[in-house]
Amino acid sequence: MPAVEEFKEQYPDQWVAIEVTRSRGAEPLEGRLIDHDADHETLSERVKLSKDKDIAVFFTGPLVPEGWAIIL
User: Fold this and answer.
1) Residue 50, H or E segment
2) What is the band of 50 on the pLDDT scale with cuts at 50, 70, 90?
3) Is 15 buried (19+), middle (13-18) or exposed (0-12) by CB count in 10 A?
4) What is the pTM of this model?
5) Cα angle for residues 52, 53, 56 (degrees, 5° grid)
6) Burial class (CB within 10 angstroms; exposed 0-12, middle 13-18, buried 19+) of 67
7) How far is CA 13 from CA 21, 25, 52, in A?
8) CA distances from 40 to 1, 53, 62, 65 (A)
9) What is the per-residue pLDDT for 2?
10) Which helix (H) or strand (E) holds 16?
């Protein structure tokens, strides 16, 4: 099964949903592609219809735009 890093390379700046086939704790390491989309809400609606049990959804691009910072 493809590793999460491969999905990040194949689908840049996309939201990706995978059926997790291998993980380390709560961190998905490998999976089977279910779907991908540039829009999180659109992908979420489609993934809700999926019958897969262990699904991970993640963004493949930067979560914070360049030049921005997050203060916790």
Assistant:
1) none
2) confident
3) buried
4) 0.82
5) 85
6) exposed
7) 23, 25, 24
8) 24, 19, 14, 16
9) 85
10) strand 15-24
pLDDT of residue 24: 94
Tokens of 64: 């914070």
- Report the alpha-carbon distance of residue 31 to residue 68 in Å, rounded: 31
**Per-residue confidence (pLDDT) for residue 48, from 0 to 100:** 87
pLDDT digits (tens, 9 = 90+) for 3-44: 999 999 999 999 999 999 999 999 999 999 999 999 999 999
* Cα separation, 11 vs 59, whole angstroms: 9
Tokens found for residue 16: 């990706």
Strand partners, 19: 32, 55
Q: What is the CA radius of gyration of the chain?
A: 13
Measured CA to CA, the distance from residue 51 to residue 14 in angstroms comes to: 22
